[in-house]
Write a structure and sequence with these properties.
heterodimer; A: Uridine Diphospho-n-acetylenolpyruvylglucosamine Reductase, domain 3; Alpha-Beta Plaits; 4 domains; seven-stranded antiparallel sheet; about 20% strand; B: alpha+beta; eight-stranded antiparallel sheet; five-stranded antiparallel sheet; binds flavin-adenine dinucleotide
């Protein structure tokens, strides 16, 4: 990068400019470490005005930029781009305002997710979106990915909890999307910005909605012989008209890994369910009995209800550690994030089993069973020639299977760099072209995280075409979805 | 233009194109034609024909909210047509095991709920005029009612959409699964866009179970919502600040010829019998200072009663952060004191509500509205006029001042509808 430009950057952020190669390596990838690109420079602004000044230079000099929160993303969203810079929001980490009466919190993008809850917990509130990475990931990253977590089944994803944003647009202007009051007249811009994976600009301030803690929380753990039985119990619970706060499932391989890593004391079974109910005491006490009965009917041979907050934490510990725990049973693994309609679960699981056997690779399954979000973990040994390629292929084929069942290639991790080639299998060309209209309105020169999410870069001058049927429609596999 | 009408007849069938009449008027403007396509493909096709011919299109569903928005901008040269979704009205799929439903835009809300109820489910929304309002119209106007406190508004319930764009593109976004972050969230962009970006032809929703039990409590006070030691407004705030989970908390208030305004608060709980009872007891303890009354029949539909009364009138949707509702009432009182105006309102505890103002003439209404809007906007809220005499509409933007994001909104509009086919001039900031 030209010294002239670096000088301009230095004038804005002073020592918050990184150009040393050894230091730049820290920023060459996110949580998806098999994609790496060394950025030209990394900037760490501390104020909105600094972000704005940086983006204005990028605009003038046509330098692509990638925003970065904590770098825990799992789809390569924060992967630097060729000849581009990284703008890290890590220094913008203040909670600016807490308005308890209106249940609003104003945070800078670098605030860590769990810190929001920690801040309001003494007053009986919490911030509902709870990705497993919540102790490290940032609000800005959550906004960009529309992150979810186990409790989103009942409480909704990040998008439900973001009311307004201050954003530096790729042209260097500052705009305010949404408002603290609901239903601001005009297009729902927070709705479109949340989940846009850093491609529409940089969030510099976020107004969050916080939620009152439920009166009581009860967590039940049930052991089944098979994931089918566990799946039937999930359908039974939902079918009975209940909306638990969370329903999580793990298969035997995932249980083994969790046990090896954090000793959660899970029963050694084929399918484990964690069901959490919350709400008024009278209601929860009644419903937990019902859940328990449904699990028994579906073949559960051990049911435990957490008797204390400590025991509840242990129940969750194994689940939250499941990804990282894979390291205990396999040298390498790929995490996927497909979604299926819940009723397709038995079919999809047996198909995954078949595919896994055919590929000669183990697949561990951890999922948010209540909303059909699967996290198949494809295990492999990178030292054995060809295994990584086969693992990649298997994980892509699992996503294809999800799409064929009417689902999605990603429930919470985002498309990023990793799955952009899969977008064309889920959406037809006109669908993608229409999404691109939004991109062109926000970022006509495609400077903000270019090359991500969409399978090909489209110039904003291109026009959309008339309706073409989706490939799956032609094949008779799916109708409009 | 003549060939365009013929092309439209060829696409939707001559029997489904007719001349516009007074009954089709939008404000006082009578469109030349009313076109009723049978399905999404026909809607997209008709849109393309209209765009290519330079015609303006007014999307329409059940016509219950046809007058919402600013008056149509028309130059007297290009023709205008209503494109109605009325015939495209099927519930395409109720995947009850997955708790989702796919529905065409022209389906009425009531019809959808009836279908979903067969499997004990519902779309957890309570829009105005459910027997006539269509899914497309409800989405385009982002209508929501008391259930919002628990289930959110349409943006929290819609998971997929099909849009017909002015150039004839049919585009899908979102999908059939509740959790999905693949691509931009166009269902949210289309929700509340008043048909200015594309026509919604189909939507997919997440569903909720019909509750086992529903209980409502009502309280009244003639001291006012905001005065008195234990005001009803405090009660409303306290209910939100404790760990109960009501599925409706609303305030009703009205001016009165005597000094004492009557104020009422309704609280609703759903769930198991035991859960409802425990929460009712807790509410009664919290409300020990308030007078309990028999809940009027159909009280959760109170919003719709604001549409009848003395004319001239204006009906507005206001939005504020919840704690500002008390001072909003003070503002209404102030602007309606001299010259004297009558008013009624139904406010949801989340800070959104409807207000009806009745005056002797348009001029007093106009100045009261301007005053109120100024005050509401200075508190970070908004005041949108839903219905008022045309004279007021011609003097006052119904949406209020747009934010610094207006240029961005205009550029989104320009990308989706570069020739300005859809509802020109009716949306925020002249979009
Ligand atoms: C062990 C583990 C468990 C995980 N569990 C979950 C889970 O349960 N649920 C879940 O949803 N995710 C999960 N994730 C994924 C990840 O933590 C989330 O996607 C998280 O939101 C990323 O936040 P981050 O701050 O690390 O963002 P980064 O990885 O730094 O960036 C993510 C994206 O956000 C953009 N971005 C960052 N800041 C901004 C900003 N201010 N403005 C605009 N764009 C910005 C980046 O450009 C990038 O595209 C997990 C990850 C790990 C490693």
């Amino acid at each position: 990068m030209e010294a002239r430009i670096l000088d301009q950057f230095r004038a804005i952020v002073g020592r918050g400019l990184i150009t040393e190669t050894s230091q730049l390596h820290t920023y060459e990838c996110d949580g998806l470490t098999n994609f790496r690109v060394l950025p030209q420079a990394v900037l760490l602004p501390a104020l909105t005005a600094e972000v704005q000044a940086i983006v204005q230079i990028c605009q003038r000099e046509k330098i692509p930029f990638v925003a970065r929160g904590s770098g825990t993303g799992l789809s390569g969203g924060a992967l630097p781009v060729d000849k581009g810079i990284v703008i890290s929001l890590a220094r913008m980490n203040r909670i600016l305002e807490v308005d308890l009466l209106n249940a609003r919190v104003v945070a800078e993008p670098g605030v860590i997710n769990a810190d929001v809850t920690q801040r309001v917990a003494p007053h009986g509130y919490f911030y509902a979106p709870d990705p497993s990475s919540q102790s490290v990931c940032s609000i800005g990253g959550n906004v960009a990915e529309n992150s979810g977590g186990a409790h989103c089944l009942k409480y909704g994803f990040t998008t439900t909890h973001v009311l307004a944003l201050e954003v530096v647009l790729p042209d260097g202007s500052i705009v305010h999307l949404g408002s603290r009051a609901l239903d601001r007249p005009g297009y729902d811009l927070p709705g479109i910005f949340v989940g846009s994976e850093g491609t529409l600009g940089i969030a510099t301030k976020v107004v969050l909605r916080i939620v009152k803690k439920p009166a009581v929380i009860q967590t039940l753990l049930a052991a089944f012989n098979t994931t089918e039985e566990a799946g039937a119990a999930v359908s039974g619970i939902i079918g009975a008209g209940m909306l638990p706060a969370a329903i999580e499932m793990m298969d035997n391989l995932a249980i083994q890994a969790a046990e090896a890593s954090v000793h959660a004391g899970y029963p050694d079974c084929g399918g484990l369910l964690l069901v959490e109910l919350d709400g008024p005491a009278a209601e929860v006490e009644h419903l937990i009995e019902e859940v328990s009965a449904i699990c028994t009917q579906c073949g559960a041979w051990e049911i435990r209800v957490a008797q204390s907050e400590a025991e509840r934490a242990v129940f969750w510990k194994g689940r939250k550690a499941a990804f990282a725990a894979m390291g205990r049973i396999s040298p390498n693994y790929i995490v996927q994030d497909g979604v299926i309609p819940r009723t397709a679960l038995p079919k999809v699981l047996s198909e995954i089993e078949r595919m896994s056997a055919a590929a000669g690779l183990r697949v561990a399954n951890v999922f948010h069973a209540g909303d059909g979000n699967l996290h198949p973990l494809v295990l492999y040994d990178g030292r054995i020639a060809g295994q990584e390629e086969r693992a990649m292929e298997l994980s892509i084929n699992i996503l294809r299977l999800c799409v064929q069942c009417g689902g999605s290639i990603t429930g919470e991790h985002g498309v990023g760099e990793e799955k952009k080639m899969m977008m064309g299998e889920m959406f037809a060309e006109p669908d993608l072209a229409t999404m691109q209209l939004v991109r062109c309105a926000f970022d006509p020169e495609q400077l903000s995280n270019p090359g991500k999410v969409f399978p090909r870069t489209r110039f904003c001058a291109e026009r959309t075409g008339p309706y073409q049927p989706h490939p799956l429609e032609v094949a008779g596999v799916a109708q409009f979805f | 233009m003549k060939t365009a009408w013929n092309d439209l007849r060829a696409v939707v069938g001559a029997g489904h194109v007719r001349a516009g009449s007074e009954l089709d008027a939008v404000d006082v403007f009578i469109p030349q034609m009313v076109v009723e396509p049978a399905n999404a493909e026909e809607i997209a096709h008709a849109l393309k024909i209209a765009t290519d011919a330079g015609l303006r299109v007014i999307p329409c569903g059940g016509t219950t909210k046809r007058d919402w928005g600013n008056p149509l901008r028309h130059d007297g040269q290009s023709g205008e047509l209503i494109l109605s979704t009325r015939r495209s009205n099927r519930v395409v799929e109720h995947a009850w095991g997955d708790m989702t439903a796919t529905v065409e835009a022209g389906c009425t809300f009531q019809q959808l709920q009836k279908t979903l109820a067969e499997h004990g489910q519902r779309l957890a929304l309570d829009p105005l005029w459910p027997e006539r309002a269509t899914i497309g119209g409800i989405l385009a106007t982002n209508d929501s009612g008391p259930l919002r406190i628990r289930f959110g508004s349409l943006r929290d319930l819609i998971i997929g959409i099909t849009l017909a764009l002015p150039d004839g593109t049919l585009a899908k976004s979102g999908g059939k699964v509740v959790k999905n972050v693949a691509g931009y969230d166009l269902p949210k962009l289309a929700t509340g866009s008043l048909g200015t970006l594309g026509m919604i032809t189909q939507a997919i929703f997440r569903l909720h179970p019909i509750p086992r039990e529903t209980r409502t409590l009502s309280f009244a006070s003639s001291e006012g919502l905001t005065s008195g030691r234990e005001s009803l407004h405090d009660l409303v705030l306290a209910i939100q600040d404790c760990n109960m989970v009501p599925t409706g908390v609303q305030m009703r208030a009205a001016s009165s010829p005597t000094e004492n305004e009557l104020h009422e608060v309704d609280v609703r709980f759903e769930g198991t019998t035991a859960g409802c009872e425990a929460q009712i007891e807790q509410t009664l303890r919290m409300a020990s200072g308030a007078r309990r009354i028999e809940a009027p029949a159909d009280v959760w539909n109170a919003r719709s009663t604001l549409w009848t009364g003395v004319e001239p009138s204006a009906i507005c949707k206001f939005s504020l952060v919840p704690t500002e509702i008390a001072s909003f009432l003070g503002l209404i009182r102030k602007v309606s004191r001299s010259p004297s105006l009558h008013w009624r309102l139904v406010a949801q505890a989340v800070g959104v509500g409807l207000l009806r103002l009745e005056g002797n003439d348009n001029a007093t209404l106009l100045s009261a509205l301007e005053d109120l809007r100024k005050q509401v906007e200075s508190r970070g809220g908004s005041l949108v006029i839903l219905r008022c005499p045309l004279e007021i509409k011609s003097k006052m933007d119904v949406w209020g001042s747009a934010s610094d994001a207006l240029p961005l909104m205009k550029s989104i509009k320009a990308r989706f509808d570069p020739r300005g086919t859809l509802n020109p001039g009716r949306f925020v900031g002249g979009i």
